[in-house]
Amino acid sequence: MKIGYARVSSKEQNLDRQLEALSHVSKLFSDKISGKTTERPKLKAMLEYIREGDIVVVTELDRLGRSSKDLTTIMNEIQQKGATLEVLNLPSMNGIEDENLRRLINNLVIELYKYQSESERKRIRERQAQGIALAKQKGRFKGGTRKYQENDPRLQLAFKLFLEGA
């Protein structure tokens, strides 16, 4: 059975492109949450659902996760269940008849893509930090709104309890 997994980073983003590419799968799971964490409800449900012989299909490797460590963990779990992973934007290894060689090359390509995915996440964070620094220099960045004001009674109570050692 082919099991699809799609993910976008936020609720505002659209899954349509991935859903179209995964229209051939038997069952589809999708999340609208960042890939920086593995705490994604539909990812967990998909990992629980898969069985031996299933094929997990994603459009791109970074849909499963953004860090090499998380990707390795997820891929190991898929493999331990006896399922395989198919990444649609990776080159097909179907022309290689020797199964061991095909698996070796596939794993090597996946390792390269894992590195690229994690590097992209770092570049996003760097660009965001640069943008914030520039906006601060120009006086346009105020930061997020504070959850509590300085004289908030809940905050005062928390400080009081902290100082009392409670």
List keywords for this structure.
166 residues, alpha/beta, Rossmann fold, four-stranded parallel β-sheet, 5 helices, 13% strand
Molecular structure report:
The mean pLDDT is 87. The protein is built from five helices and four strands, in the order E-H-E-H-E-H-E-H-H. The chain has 166 residues and is of the alpha/beta class. The chain has a four-stranded parallel sheet, covered by helices on one side. The longest helix has 39 residues. Helix 1 links the parallel strand 1 and strand 2. The protein has a single domain, classed as Rossmann fold (3-Layer(aba) Sandwich).
What is the helix fraction of residues, given as a range? Answer: 40-55%
Order of helices and strands: EHEHEHEHH
- The radius of gyration over CA amounts to 22 Å
Q: What's the shape?
A: elongated
Which CATH class applies here?
Answer: Alpha Beta
Using DSSP, what is the number of strands? 4
CATH homology superfamily: Resolvase, N-terminal catalytic domain
List low-confidence stretches.
none
**Mind telling me which CATH architecture this is?**
3-Layer(aba) Sandwich
